[in-house]
Amino acid sequence: MAPDLDLIMNRLLLSLLVAAPVGAQATVTEVVHDVLASVRAAVPVATARGASSLAALSSLSSLSSLSSLSSLATHSSLSSLAGLGALAEVELWEPDQAADSLYRMGRRALDRGDYRRAAELFMQVRARDRKAAIAGDALYWHAFASARLGSTAGMQSALASLDALASEFPRTMSSDARTLRVRICGSLASQGNEGCAREIRERAGASGGSGSSAGGSSTSSGGTRVRNSGSQEQGCPDEDDDERVEALNALLQMDADAALPILEKTLARRDRCSASLRRKAIFLVSQKREAKAADILMNSLRTDPDGEVREQAVFWLGQLRDDRAVTMLEEILRTEKDEDVLDKAVFALSQHRSARAATLLRDLAQRDNAPKQQREQAIFWLGQQKSGENAELLIGLFARVSDDDLKDKIIFSLGQVRSPATDKWMLDLATNDKEDVEVRKKALFWAGQNRTVSAEALGQMYDRMSDREMKEQVIFVMSQRRDAGTIDKLIDIARNDKDRELRKRAVFWLGQSKDPRARKAIEELINR
Question: Whole-angstrom Cα distance, residue 415 to residue 127?
Fold first, then answer.
């Protein structure tokens, strides 16, 4: 039998008291929205009972006044209403309707970051109907919210919910729930929980084996469950990898001496479906800055058939302060054929910050038979180091190379050094009529970005030049400076230059300036 409107109102007011503790104004407002939505849903019920009952709906116009309940949050005496929560056991709603409403409220609380409130609501969902499918989802999200509280009690409560999920809803115990359990257990193990420590060791040790189970989903860092977009290799499910990596990471924090041999065993796997796990394992190894970790990285670099694993091994070698890494990187630059691995090797050398690594980088930049892409990268990183020695080498190298791309990279890199010597070299290059005009324009641009090149020097260069294309470039470079000296020169060009096109170009760039002198000059030109 459908409930009448009085019963509907009793339900909704009960929800207001149960779901909104005193002082939670935002929650009160939220529940009012649910009240109005449910009343709208009640209209078909009244319609089914006949037109005479529709007259009673006119009294519902007073529901808008419920919004004033938010002001009651300031009355501490209302705290006694908390006891009305016991009325939630009165079945004024159908169980599935109540559970669904509480579940949606829990998800909204989760989205707001109110993890304590979310955990309470998800537990209410389970209490409503322990066998419904929604109760299984509520157990997962209760565990997630409780874990995010960060307290030991919260994490223990989360584990209890995951245990209940595994026993009561085994078919819905997906990989994201198992991964969450490992993450929580890792945190508790670090606090001395021996049971969790034992579980972490067992799970981490299992990663050295082979094979993985299928099915499941993954959890993003924001707490949204999403399906796996695809397997690491066709026919190779990878949903177990997150669980294993979490266990390995937790063990690494607990006991590095125990974790590194397991990671080494994982990296030694060569079964077809282990590549994804090896890629994640190589990162974990890199986090331990010690000789054993360097040994494992170098072995993977030499022996792993997966290009991405080798790329990551090269990258992380550059972060280790181990001289053997430089020797390994030198070997890679001589023998490796994979372009991506070579790129990572050049980057790793640039990050090593040792004298030998710097020497290898300079040698690579100058070596005529080295791959062009790696030479360009070596030139780039030499400029980023901003040393006088590197600047002198690059200036000398520019005179020897004929490749336009290498020349462009040298000009860019010297522009990053920002010293009087490099600025003078670039200005001299910009005025050298024997060089290609595009090369000259690039040198002028990068020189103009440095404040060591004065506005006066740029103005004098403009006056000396006869090539219109180069004069236009000087105007552009000055327009990017936006300092007093360059504004003055642009105004002078706009007023007095004999070339009409150059005057127009100067006026255009003055129009982009917020300097009041520029605006005044433009007004004067208009009113001539």
Answer: 68
Q: Quick check: 493 pLDDT over 90?
A: yes
Q: Tell me the C-alpha distance between 11 and 41, whole Å.
A: 13
As given in the structure block, the two tokens for residue 449 are 């970005």
Looking at residue 398, its pLDDT comes to: 94
Supply 446's token pair.
């990068």
CB atoms under 10 Å from CB of 345, counted, come to 29
Among positive and negative, which fits the CA dihedral 258, 260, 265, 270?
Answer: positive
CA–CA gap between residue 236 and residue 308 (Å, rounded): 17
Phi, psi of 406 (to 5 degrees): -65, -40
Q: How far apart are CA 170 and CA 258, in angstroms?
A: 32
Query: pLDDT tens digit string along 384-432?
Result: 988 888 999 999 999 999 999 999 999 999 988 878 888 889 999 999 9
**477, 493 contact by CB (below 8 A):** no
Q: What is the pLDDT of residue 491?
A: 92
**Which residues, other chains included, contact 80 with Cβ-Cβ below 8 Å and sequence gap of 6+?**
none
Do residues 142 and 112 touch, judged by C-beta distance below 8 A?
A: no
**Mean pLDDT rounded to a whole number for the chain:** 76
Q: What pLDDT shows up at residue 176?
A: 77
Place of tokens 């009960």: 14
Q: How far apart are CA 404 and CA 223, in angstroms?
A: 50
pTM (2 d.p.): 0.57
Cα distance from N-terminal residue to C-terminal residue, the chain: 90
Give burial (CB, 10 Å; 0-12/13-18/19+) of 216.
buried
The answer to whether 157 and 221 have CB atoms below 8 angstroms apart is no
